[in-house]
């Protein structure tokens, strides 16, 4: 059994994926480890497959799984996990750049604290700010309402009020300290293989987006905690393959799945707790939001 399996889904992001891999390779030269990298390509047509085959020639730790069609993010990751042999599994986006992370330090957290089910490091964007998707509370009706009408942003730095109105991104927490969160991002999500086996991997109802928060929810249902660990960080070149990509068709498909994921999560976990009319208003609000331009 390997110590660590890293699962990366590739879809028409040849140069970004190559950058991700090159940095990973250098990172493991600095911090040697028994690892494997499994790339699942979702039917790329931009030269990604040829690039990956070239990289594989001189990298025995790199495995390729080539799909003839786009399986979606969750299903592709599940396929990679099925082939994995690691005790620990890292879900890593192809646009996530690791420059300096000692994975043994991260794994030591799991071994020292058995109640930890998954963790994320500090995920930063190109502008140096934290990726808000990496430090989240679960999207309850109240916290979602506060976020989308702007109360979270308005009271972001106001003591006590940021706890009341900022639960969507847990704005009352100190981003420099280690603490529990509800959910991180699939851009960097480390967990145990045995936990993935228990929950069955990513939920197949999600095509893209939402599957990471769904997984976090199910991990916490098992009684585990999700940890935010900012002592290490990763750069996330966000929107390289989705919402802000130049290709209009890709943007539209991404937008659809982005908001569809909100509906799926709400239906699974909150709809039964609310009145029919409330649910219809929630779905309407999501539809209206999806039609607004980014």
From TrEMBL:
Glycosyltransferase 2-like domain span: 5-149
Pfam families: Glycos_transf_2
Name of the protein this chain belongs to: Glycosyl transferase family 2
Domain of life: Bacteria
Assigned keywords, A-Z: Transferase
Entries under SUPFAM superfamilies matching the protein: Nucleotide-diphospho-sugar transferases
Protein species of origin: Candidatus Roizmanbacteria bacterium CG23_combo_of_CG06-09_8_20_14_all_35_49
Lineage per the UniProt record: Bacteria, Candidatus Roizmaniibacteriota
GO molecular function term, any single one: transferase activity
């Amino acid at each position: 059994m390997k110590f660590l399996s890293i699962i990366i889904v590739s879809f028409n992001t040849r140069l970004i994926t190559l950058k991700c891999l090159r940095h990973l390779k250098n990172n493991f030269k600095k911090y040697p480890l028994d690892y494997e990298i499994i790339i699942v390509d979702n039917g790329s047509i931009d030269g990604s497959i040829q690039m990956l085959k070239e990289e594989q020639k001189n990298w025995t730790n790199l495995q390729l799984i080539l799909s003839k069609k786009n399986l979606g993010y969750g299903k592709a990751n599940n396929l990679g996990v099925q082939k994995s042999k690691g005790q620990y599994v890292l879900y890593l986006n192809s646009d996530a750049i690791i420059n300096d992370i000692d994975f043994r330090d991260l794994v030591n957290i799991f071994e020292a604290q058995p109640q930890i089910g998954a963790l994320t490091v500090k995920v930063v964007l190109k502008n140096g700010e934290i990726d808000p998707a990496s430090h989240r509370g679960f999207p309850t009706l109240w916290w979602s309402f506060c976020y989308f009408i702007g109360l979270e942003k308005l009271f972001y730095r106001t003591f006590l009020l940021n706890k009341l109105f900022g639960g969507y991104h847990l704005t009352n927490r100190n981003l420099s300290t280690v603490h529990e969160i509800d959910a991180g991002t699939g851009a960097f999500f480390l967990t145990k293989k045995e936990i993935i086996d228990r929950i069955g991997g990513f939920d197949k109802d999600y095509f893209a987006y939402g599957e990471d928060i769904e997984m976090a929810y199910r991990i916490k249902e098992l009684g585990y905690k999700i940890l935010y660990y900012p002592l290490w960080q990763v750069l996330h070149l966000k929107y390289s393959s989705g919402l802000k990509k130049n290709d209009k068709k890709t943007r539209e498909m991404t937008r659809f799945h982005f908001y569809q994921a909100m509906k799926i999560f709400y239906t699974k976990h909150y709809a039964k707790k609310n009145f029919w009319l409330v649910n219809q208003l929630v779905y309407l609000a999501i539809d209206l939001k999806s039609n607004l331009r980014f």
